Amino acid sequence: MNLNTIPNIKHLNSGNFFLLAGPCAIEGEDMALRIAEKVVSITDKLQIPYVFKGSFKKANRSRIDSFSGIGDEKALKILRKVAETFLVPTVTDIHTNEDAAIAAAYVDVLQIPAFLVRQTDLVVAAAQTGKVVNLKKGQFMSPESMKHAVQKVLDCQNANVMVTDRGTMFGYQDMIVDFRGIPTLQQYATTVLDVTHSLQQPNQSEGVTGGRPDKIETIAKAGIAVGVDGIFIETHFDPANAKSDGANMLHLDYFEDVMTKLVAIRKTVNQF
């Protein structure tokens, strides 16, 4: 896909990777604007094409008492406010066919969660909105099998599709990134590496997903080195108290340092 199809995306001539980043979930307006302001400042400084990420609701929770959102319309309006305030595009997850049209009225990119990427009706509903569709590779799927998910979007006469690798299950409670899959996925669509979800440690006995945020820089550097098109990172100014996926988010204080290193690696890769 051509990234120019994403409204308000900037710095496309910089030669950099593009970035999808923000909190796991929208917890409130103040936190979303605070994170967006910081990341926009960093990406403008480093000339990284940027899309703000925030889930308007979290339907794929391990426990019924896990945080799922502040209300669909309320969260979607916050995403719209981020877009209008900072003039950046936005992306959010959808979980049902009905979500597609609702979310499409507020955001620029619709993301299909990894657990749901084989759900044909959901993928088609997203594609039929005409929005850019980000298909996250199922933890249980091979890179090669993602060509069928991509084709579902293309068959809806929507060429605005990208795929995101978010790691593959490794035993019951760990994930691993097989970097051989990046060039395979790039045969089918623009390809993103979801760094933070690739470091999840799911299926913990207490019902709260763990993670390895200390390895975020390692995985991100490797992704840029093998030539991935985009990077996905969840970030928060207080991961320990984030209401969703705090265990594998990058602390906002470290964000600029990591991005600076990735930009340097990208410049080296571009020479080849």
UniProtKB/TrEMBL annotation:
Q: Name one GO molecular function term.
A: 3-deoxy-8-phosphooctulonate synthase activity
Subcellular locations according to the entry: Cytoplasm
- InterPro entries per the UniProt record, alphabetical: Aldolase_TIM, DAHP1/KDSA, KDO8P_synthase
Cited SUPFAM superfamilies: Aldolase (SSF51569)
Q: In which pathway does it act?
A: Bacterial outer membrane biogenesis; lipopolysaccharide biosynthesis; Carbohydrate biosynthesis; 3-deoxy-D-manno-octulosonate biosynthesis; 3-deoxy-D-manno-octulosonate from D-ribulose 5-phosphate: step 2/3
Q: What is its EC number?
A: 2.5.1.55
Q: Which reaction does it catalyse?
A: D-arabinose 5-phosphate + phosphoenolpyruvate + H2O = 3-deoxy-alpha-D-manno-2-octulosonate-8-phosphate + phosphate
**Which Gene Ontology cellular-component terms appear in the entry?**
cytoplasm
Enzyme class, top EC level, equals transferase
| UniProt-listed GO biological process terms | lipopolysaccharide biosynthetic process
Q: Domain DAHP synthetase I/KDSA, which positions?
A: 16-263
What keywords were assigned to this record? Cytoplasm, Transferase
**Main localisation, per the record?**
cytoplasm
Q: Which PANTHER family match?
A: PHOSPHO-2-DEHYDRO-3-DEOXYHEPTONATE ALDOLASE
Q: Which family does it belong to?
A: Belongs to the KdsA family.
Name it.
Answer: 3-deoxy-8-phosphooctulonate synthase
Native source organism of the sequence? Flavobacterium aciduliphilum
